[in-house]
Each structure stands twice: as structure tokens, then as C-alpha cells.
Sequence to fold (453 residues):
Amino acid sequence: MSVKDFPEECWELVFRFLGHGPHLESLSMVCKQFLSITNRFLFSLAIHDPTIPLLPRLFLRFPRLKTLDFTHFNGHHEGLLHQISQSGLDLDLINLSNQRTLPVDGLRELGSKMQNLRVLICSNIGSLRDSHLVVMAYSFPFLEELDISFPLDSQASDFGVQRLSSLLENLRKINISEGGGLMLKKLILQDCCNCTFSGISYVLTKCQSVQCLDLRKIDFLTDQCISELSMFLLSLTSINLSGCCQLTNSTFFILTRNCPLLSEIKMERTYLGMEGEEDSMKDFVVNLEVKKVYLGDNVLLSDASLIKFASICPSLQLLDLTGCEGVSSECIVKVLKRCCEIRHLNLAYTGMEVFEIDFEVSQLEVLNLSGSRIEDEALSIISRRCSGLLLLNIQSCWHVTPKGVKQVVENCRALKELNLKNCWLVSGDFIAWVEFSRPSLRTIVTPSDVGAY
Fold:
């Protein structure tokens, strides 16, 4: 059997065992058939200025090209990208690094023909704008990796990064290392099941301007992880760690001590209430910046832990304790005394029964007692001590009667919203009286929720 009679598919299998490099170059000179076969094994092409006139022939010669590298090209891109878009190639990666500007029109045209592109590298670009990021996202919707690191002149903002991340559903890796400065202010990694601690740490070391950090449900995070990450969070103002089930009291203490600008902490459904290593410290750092704390559904949260948190954050304006059944009404009274600026207090489904408040809580504007076991006596105390209430939610408080609600309506003259849903002891006739007695009420949710007045 001669060489010509041997099927090309068999030759191709043989050549695969030889790998790439000089062996294939030697084979390509044996005959035209071998040249044609070896051409199929070239998948990457670096484009230099002298290469440009040869591109049409090169694209025909190497039909299986997957990667084009423009890092050493100094010419005009638009016409070149038009030529590539018409080549019929199915590219996997394009490297446009070291260019003075991004060829926006060329990228749009290329994207219309090559939507399977997985990797786009645009490192060390002369100028980077939000509009460039949006064009990338629309042009290549199936991108999995993107490198926009070290721009010389960057005006990219949170808006551009957010649009990029929301449009690229398959994005798995993005390099935004600062060089001329991509100022990332918001980082959302909620439910990112494939990320690692080293990955999160690397991003934060490069982007220490992050102000809002969302790490919800990243369940491998521990107190030690948060301690290490907090070193890079000096600009942090808001953090969401809800659903991070290994985090204890120590994380709260670490954040309030190491993040001087932090104003909002969300740690719902964590392990708060369990003492960690930080709990052994005698001197906690008071943080006057923390204004909002969400601790809902922490079933282990105790009075002792909550008192510590209140002592550290005396400037609290919002405290959400939804579903924290381990916290007593006596503890809440102590918190209100220590944190006299609280305006919004959520005690829904905490099992509260009584409130022995013997001081004015004039700043409190929103109080949610849904699902609690309070009775008229507690409402009476609340109406006298919290006369500045704007919104009172007593949904599903089954022991409340018109007597208690009447005192609230009469004493809380600024009240604008009242939720009485499922308060079955409150009649429809009484609702009509409430509407007549307090015209300033904008919303009344009735016991049967058949309407609002």
C-alpha cells in the first residue's frame, strides 16, 4: 500500500502521537498530503505587523485555529477584525493585550460571527471605559474568562462591572488586577459554589476599595477566614454574611474592630450565639459607625451575646432580630437603653410577651412585633413610651384586643401605618373607629386583609 492509499484519518491519528513542534514541521515537507494534514494541528497564531498581508492565506491554510494573539500587533484593528469575522473560523480565545485602544466596532462585528468565544484577554489596554465592558458582554455572551487587568487609563466603574456580570451568565473567571486603577466598590459572590477562600482573598487584596461585600451562603467561611479578609476591608461599609453557617460571635467582633467605616452588618442564619476565640478578649472596640445590624433567624443568639453587640455598637439605628427566640424582652429593654438612637426594631416571631420599659424611647419609628405573644398591657406600655411610632406591625398577635390598639392610636399621634392582619379579636367596627379617630393613618391592614383604609 502506498502513502496515497493510506486514509488521511489514519495519518492524522499517527501524527497526533508525535505532538506539536519540529516533528510536524519536518513531516509537512514530505508531501502535499502531509502538509495538508499537519496544517490541521495548528490551533494558535500570533499576529505581527508583517503577518497581515498573509492572513487570508493563513486562515485558509489553518482552518482549525482556536486562538489569535494580537499582543505584538501595532496596526489598525478594525479592518483586521472584519477580515477575521469573515474567515469562517470558530475561535475560542482572542488576546488583545497591549493595545492603545479597544476596537469597539470590530469587537461588535466579530461577536456577531463568533459567539462561541470563551476567553477574551484585554490586559494593559490604554483606555478602559464602562461602555467597553458593556460591548464585550453583548458581543460575546458566552464568555467564561475575561482579563481586563492593568488598564493605563481606567474610568470603569461599578456600573460597568455590574452590567458585565449580569449579562455574562457563564463567566467563571475575571482578572481585574489594579494597575492604573479599576476601582471596584461592590463585590457580590452570593451562592458562588465554585469559589474558594484563596480566590476571594486574591480579589480583595487587589481591590481594597470594595465598599459593599456580599458573601451570602458561602458556607466554607470561618471566623479565621473573616479575620484574614478583614485586613483588606478598610473601605468596607456594608457586608452580607447571611447563611454562612460556621460564623460565630467572633466574626462580629472582628468586623467591628477591623473595619472602621463599616455601617451595615447582615449575619442572618449563622452560628451567632456561639462563642469563638475572640470572645475571650476583655477589651472590645466600640464602633460608632455601625448603624444597621440584621441578625434574623439566629436561633442560638442569647441575651448575653446581644448585650455585647449593643455595647460595641451604641449608635445602632436599625436592629433586626426576626425569629431570634432566645432573646428575652428584658434584654431588648437593655438594648434600647444602651442604643438610644434605634429607629427601626424588628422583633417578628421572637415570642415576645411583655415590655417593662420605664424610660422614653422617643426615637423609635418602626416596630415589628408580628407573631409575638404580646397582650394589651404590653401595647399600653409601648404606646406611652414609644409615642413617636410611625409604623406598628402586630400581624398575627392573636391576644391583642381593641382595648390595646385603641391606646396605641390615641397615644402615637404620628402613626401612619398599622398592620392588624390576623388579629382576630379586633372587629371591623373598631377599624372604622380607628379610621375616624386618626385621619393621619395612611395604611391600615385589616384583620382579614380584605382591604386597606
Q: What stands out?
A: The two ends are 95 Å apart (CA to CA). The longest helix spans residues 8-18. The domain at 42-183 is CATH 3.80.10.10 (Leucine-rich repeat, LRR (right-handed beta-alpha superhelix)).
